Amino acid sequence: MQNKRIFLGFHVVAGSIALAAFALITPKVSSAQTETVLHSFDDATGDAEMPYGGLVADAAGNLYGAGSAGGATFHNLGAVFELTPSGGGAMSESLLHTFNGTDGYAPIGSLVIDGAGNLYGVTEWGGGLGISYCGQDGCGVVFEVTRGTDGHWVEKVLHRFNPNGTDGISPFAGLIFDGAGNLYGTTAEGGRYNGGTVFELTSKSDGSWGERILHNFGDGTDGSFPRGSLIFDGAGNLYGTTSTGGANDDGTVFELRPSTGGGWSERVLHSFSHKSTDGRLPIGGLSIDNSGNLYGTTAEGGSSESCVNYYVPSCGTVFEVMPRAGGVWAERVIHNFVLNTTDGVNPEAGVIIDSAGNLYGTTYYGGAYSAGIVFELSPGADGTWTETNLHSFGNGTDGQNPDAGLIFGATGDIYGTTLFGGAYAGGTAFEITP
Hints:
Layout: E1 4-6, E2 12-14, E3 28-29, E4 34-40, E5 48-49, E6 56-57, E7 63-67, E8 69-70, E9 79-87, E10 90-98, E11 105-113, E12 119-125, E13 141-147, E14 153-160, E15 168-169, E16 176-177, E17 183-187, E18 189-190, E19 197-203, E20 209-216, E21 223-224, E22 231-232, E23 238-242, E24 244-245, E25 252-258, E26 264-271, E27 279-280, E28 287-288, E29 294-298, E30 300-301, E31 317-323, E32 329-336, E33 344-345, E34 352-353, E35 359-363, E36 365-366, E37 373-379, E38 385-392, E39 399-400, E40 407-408, E41 414-418, E42 420-421, E43 428-433
Parallel strand pairs: 3-38
Antiparallel strand pairs: 1-2, 4-43, 5-8, 6-7, 7-9, 9-10, 11-12, 12-13, 13-14, 15-18, 16-17, 17-19, 19-20, 21-24, 22-23, 23-25, 25-26, 27-30, 28-29, 29-31, 31-32, 33-36, 34-35, 35-37, 37-38, 39-42, 40-41, 41-43
């Protein structure tokens, strides 16, 4: 099993976590879920591989995503793919675009789709600026992939990130739209303090896009190195996480509010702390419920130390950040992951919420085969949450190590990707059917 993780700006982790003492909690294991591998990625045939991002669906039920490596040419710099229903529950895959470096490489994060079916995403590196500071030929791009009248897809670079001291570099998460069609995202590095940025891209009348930096991370006790995507609330405020920084350098939850004159003001809603049983290293983005409560995960931290080894000191958490009277926010851990054969550990993506308030997510490690799980957290009337393991990865040609978040299908199914595993070890796209 290939378990190689690249933590941007931190370290490289190789090797899987050995099973340790089974303690603290034992989550409920469901036998009513069915997992189906929709596609196993195979770079040997020119396919995409290693999808760091999740999937996005169009109205017809087609699924789209990007592999950070592979592609139909010798470049092996990643590709955008489509999965199309082909009858009997099967899906056929086709590549829409293969990156060559000058148009970006290593697409990362999930794609976003507009009303016309155009796809938008980011690459961590590349861009044709001739800069080797970040990676081959540049520091990443924002791109659009559009279906032409002849049915072929064409890629267009909307923005090339530049390490000029003001622009962000190396985006690590997908984009979101506002109601006017503007794009918003984060970069994991760059900006005024080299702690990353929040940026906005606005379409111009000539077809080009203009970038504006809304916030520069890394000043004082501000957060730094955001690696998750953003979300809007109903009032137009933006929320997200930073993987480090804050009062304890263990990451933050932040809010950006639009202010008079077109500016944005940022405040830290919560600083995580390794000095307590709080989580640390929030990598994924957030979800918001109808009451304005925010939910997310931390890849490390929490009350369980069953994950202790050289690289991963603790198992991670699911947390809730709640607005309170007077404009303050309170955080609580609603689940501590524990290394055993049923629970997962080290979640690297956020969670999604269904209409009943249940949360769904993935962990990178743990479960019956030490290769990650899909989990559900259900709220109880007494304020506690119950975890159910919906699927353990790593059995045979199943996927391994899900790194991205999930989406709901039209009939309540859950879709996602794994970074490795499958029939060819290049990762999978999967479906969980209740």
